[in-house]
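BUG: 3D viewer hangs when loading the predicted structure for this chain

Environment: internal workstation, default settings.
Expected: structure renders.
Actual: progress bar stalls at 90%.

Input used:
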Amino acid sequence: MTLPALPEESFQRVLCVVAHPDDMEYGTSAAVARWTARGIEVGYLLLTRGEAGMPTPPEETARLRVAEQRAACAAVGVKHLTVLGHPDGVLVYGLDLRRDICREIRRFKPDVVLGTGYDIETPYGFDQADHRAAGLATLDAVRDAGNRWVFPEQVDEEGLEPHSARWYIVPGMAGSATHGVEVTGEPLLRGIASLEAHAAYLAALPGHPAPADFIPTFTAMSGQAMGVEHAVLFRAHDLQAPPGFSAEATQD
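Structure tokens produced before the viewer hung:
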């Protein structure tokens, strides 16, 4: 049984929330390239500046990595980039993080929030602590954003309105994914280019393979689950589904 395509006709705005510069670029940005080419507006929210990710001094690293992220965004048509100043490497799950993500959801008003996983162990080994904190905080902030009485100062003092996204999606793998996005052709090429934009960061990682040498392999494996040449897979939750389905996750 092949995975269905994510129903792109059901959304026009996507907000992607990740911990670091480059987190979107390991395949997921190819899906973003497809969406922006189809007129879907995509925004990125980076919770840190990635200052702990290179041997250079933190402030120098932060400037470099944010500049590379802007270039990566341009490669896939993302015009809305927000970078917060939470500390890289020691990102803390809690109300401050939830509040900041909630603010961006209320500001950007996405139909889809794309987050990251929050499991400790993944098929690739133990996940990095910042990724787990970001994933769990994003999941909670999706609910927070729709509740007028959670972080009410954003409504009363900042003029933001509560907002309830329809979809919450997380990059997935065959076996756990529910939907896919075909990225064969131009979207894949632009996705590869977006990771290549992080040139200085990748050069600082010993033995890191060239993006063009491994991203097509991963997307081809995912494509098999959809019956297409290349794909990016997601675990998608329709938060407006009738009770008894994925909407259960949004009930108190």
